[in-house]
Amino acid sequence: MGADRFDGLAIVGIRDLLLVTVSSDFHDQLAVRLKASLSDRVRTSGSRAVVLDISAVEVIDSYITRVLNDIGSCVRFMGAGCFVVGMRPAVAMTLVEMGIHLEGIRTALSLDEAVTALEAAR
Amino acid sequence: MGADRFDGLAIVGIRDLLLVTVSSDFHDQLAVRLKASLSDRVRTSGSRAVVLDISAVEVIDSYITRVLNDIGSCVRFMGAGCFVVGMRPAVAMTLVEMGIHLEGIRTALSLDEAVTALEAAR
Predict the structure, then answer these.
(1) Beta-carbon separation of B88 and A43 below 8 A
(2) What's the rounded mean pLDDT across residues A69-89?
(3) Which of A12, A90, B42, B81 is most deeply buried (CB count within 10 A of its CB)?
(4) Is the CB of residue B111 less than 8 Å away from at least one CB of chain A?
C-alpha cells in the first residue's frame, strides 16, 4: 500500500488495485498529471487494475474524457484493466449527448462492484 | 524446449509457450526477422501461445507496432494466442499518443500474469 496525493485527487494502492479518488474540481491540468503518474505507478506497483472513482465529479468535458480514454488505453497496453466507477447521471447524460465513448474502460456502479468483477475475472 | 538466438532477441520454447525476450535495441530489421521465424516456430513446436516480453524496450515507433500487430494476427490465424508483456509506461504513452491499437494482442503486466491468464483459459 501507498498513497500519492495531488490537490484534487489521491492514488492509493490496495493489494493489486490502484484506486484513484477524483475530487469535484477535476480539471484539465490534473487529468494530464494523473495520466503521467498513473502509468508509472502501474509499473512500479505491478497493479492488475486501476479504478477511477469519479463519484464526486459533477461536470466533465470532452478534453477530460479524452484523457480518461488515454489513461484506459495506456493502462491496458501495460496489461492492467481500467474501471471508472460512480459516474453521476448528469455526467453520463453529458457523455451521451457529446457522442463520446469510453473505449476499453469498464464501468461499474461502485468500487464494490468493480472489485467483484475483478475477482470474478481472476 | 529449444532456443533460437538473434542479436537482440531470444525465442525460447517452454512447454506450450514460445517466449520471446526482446532486448532494448529492437529495430525494424529485427522485427521483420522475428515475424518470419516466429510463425515457423509456432507451426513446428505446436505452441499454444506466443509471449513477447518487451520490458527492455524503451522506444517504439509505428513501424515496429505494425509488425507486432502483424505477428499477433499471424499467430492468431494459426490458432495460437499472442501476448505482449511488460510494456513500459513511456512506450504505452507513445502508442496512445500515436492513436495506435494493438488488435488481437493481449497484454499482461508480466510473464507470470500471462501464464496465469493462459492457464485460466485452458
Answers:
(1) yes
(2) 92
(3) B42
(4) no
